[in-house]
UniProtKB/TrEMBL annotation:
<feature type="transmembrane region" description="Helical">
    <location>
        <begin position="34"/>
        <end position="53"/>
    </location>
</feature>
<keyword id="KW-0472">Membrane</keyword>
<feature type="domain" description="DUF7134">
    <location>
        <begin position="5"/>
        <end position="167"/>
    </location>
</feature>
<keyword id="KW-1133">Transmembrane helix</keyword>
<dbReference type="Pfam" id="PF07730">
    <property type="entry name" value="HisKA_3"/>
</dbReference>
<keyword id="KW-0597">Phosphoprotein</keyword>
<dbReference type="InterPro" id="IPR055558">
    <property type="entry name" value="DUF7134"/>
</dbReference>
<dbReference type="InterPro" id="IPR050482">
    <property type="entry name" value="Sensor_HK_TwoCompSys"/>
</dbReference>
<keyword id="KW-0175">Coiled coil</keyword>
<keyword id="KW-0808">Transferase</keyword>
<keyword id="KW-0547">Nucleotide-binding</keyword>
<keyword id="KW-0902">Two-component regulatory system</keyword>
<dbReference type="InterPro" id="IPR036890">
    <property type="entry name" value="HATPase_C_sf"/>
</dbReference>
<keyword id="KW-0812">Transmembrane</keyword>
<protein>
    <recommendedName>
        <fullName>histidine kinase</fullName>
        <ecNumber>2.7.13.3</ecNumber>
    </recommendedName>
</protein>
<keyword id="KW-0418">Kinase</keyword>
<feature type="transmembrane region" description="Helical">
    <location>
        <begin position="99"/>
        <end position="127"/>
    </location>
</feature>
Length: 428
């Protein structure tokens, strides 16, 4: 690129400087030779273009100097513009122009030394005086001093321009480094904020899962216990007239059920208040006690098992226990308690199928869960939490749960994997 991008006012200033320098030096140069006007104009143009186009300024300066030497003109004051051109070539020029400027320093010093020493001395007839060794030494010394003088005159501006160029490059590098550091800090802040948001989202999810778990457990405990208490209380009220002595047994069952419910509720409330380890949870071995408790409450339960039982994790055992507990509680609340409840555990090599079938009351549908005859929820009716909670437990255990009605019976069918290949989701 020949021309650099500089501000308009910089171009105007450079042109004015070239014009002023030309006007100032022209009166001193006119008396030297008839070509002074051309030489002064050339140096003024080079001075004006030194920042806009260092390559052009260097070319014009060389052309003007060559014209000056070819015409055997005496060096003029306007030649000092060459120093400014060499400075600009090192400070603002491209890498190629910069090194051309450095070459111009050496070549220009040699040519200037030759021109001043030989051409000018020959012109004025000085060389004929060199007739002895002393005169030769004096001449060589003069040549050396002249060369060093030109080298210093032309080299110092170029070195100054190189120093300015280095300072500008260091400043730009520092600015780029600062920008990169700011961008890195901003990216780090964004990443940190994203990590915080992700951690907060994980905490919210964990809290919501824990809240849902406690809600399920609270529903299972309270609904089951209250259903047993209500059934025993109703039974005691009806039996009081016929056999007052049997009331004591019913009241004992009510008290035992209420105490167990109170203990479990206290455990759940303790988990809400403190981050403690999970309390002992029911397992498959507790199903016999559950069946006995529900039988005492007035249900007739036919518990059967087929196949070879597999070893299940505590999480799946808890899910199965809660599903059976909720199903029997729903029968006690909404089903026909005079009919037998069939509970089947069908063990297979890879899974366990649990089927709980109960008879529906002729006058009371399952209003608590707002089910249709196909087992689907009515979206426009208030739903309970029983079937929803059972499905959640089955899903978290890696299985499925469906409900439907057939032949006046309500059937709950749960399928729980029993293989070790399925990862268990932690249920407490």
């Amino acid at each position: 690129m020949i021309f650099r991008r500089i501000r308009t006012h910089q171009v105007v200033i450079d042109v004015l400087i070239g014009l002023v320098v030309g006007l100032i030096t022209l009166p001193f140069d006119l008396h030297a030779n008839p070509f002074s006007l051309v030489i002064t104009l050339g140096m003024a143009v080079a001075l004006a273009f030194r920042r806009l186009s260092p390559a052009t300024a260097l070319s014009v300066a060389w052309a003007t100097a060559a014209f000056e030497m070819l015409t055997l003109s005496t060096p003029q004051v306007s030649n000092l513009a060459i120093c400014a051109v060499l400075y600009a070539s090192a400070a603002y020029g491209s890498a190629r122009v910069k090194w051309l400027g450095l070459g111009s320093v050496g070549i220009g010093a040699a040519i200037g030394m030759f021109y001043v020493t030989f051409a000018q001395l020959a012109l004025f007839g000085v060389l004929h005086d060199v007739s002895s060794a002393t005169d030769l030494v004096r001449l060589l010394l003069q040549i050396g001093i002249t060369f060093l003088g030109f080298l210093a005159l032309l080299g110092l501006p170029w070195v100054g321009g190189q120093l300015v160029r280095t300072r500008y490059a260091a400043r730009e590098s520092r600015d780029r480094q600062l920008v990169a550091e700011r961008e890195a800090a901003r990216a780090e802040n964004v990443a940190t904020q994203a990590e915080r948001e992700a951690a907060r989202a994980e905490r919210d999810i964990a809290v919501e899962q824990e809240r849902s778990r406690i809600a399920r457990d609270m529903h299972d405990v309270v609904a089951h216990s209250l259903a047993v208490v209500i059934a025993q209380a109703d039974g005691a009220r009806y039996a009081y007239k016929a056999d007052p002595d049997s009331v004591e047994e019913n009241l004992g069952t009510i008290a035992a059920t209420a105490r167990e419910a109170l203990v479990e509720v206290r455990v759940l409330l303790g988990q809400l208040r403190h981050s403690q380890g999970a309390a002992p949870q029911p397992v498959l071995g507790d199903l016999e006690k559950l069946v006995e408790q529900m039988t005492t409450a007035g249900l007739s339960i036919d518990l059967r098992s087929s196949g070879v039982p597999a070893q299940l994790g505590s999480n799946r055992q808890l899910a199965i226990y809660r599903i059976v507990q909720e199903s029997l509680t729903n029968v006690l609340r909404h089903g026909d308690t005079t009919s037998s409840v069939d509970v089947l555990f069908d063990w297979r090599p890879d899974d366990l199928t649990i089927i709980i079938a109960s008879t529906l009351r002729a006058t009371t549908p399952l209003d608590s869960d707002a089910l249709t005859t196909s087992g689907q929820y009515r979206p426009d009716e208030r739903r309970g939490h029983g079937v929803v909670g059972m499905r959640e437990r089955a899903t978290l255990a890696g299985g499925t749960l469906t409900t439907h009605q057939a032949g006046g019976r309500f059937i709950v069918r749960a399928n729980i994997p029993s293989t070790a290949l399925t990862q268990e989701v932690r249920l407490r």
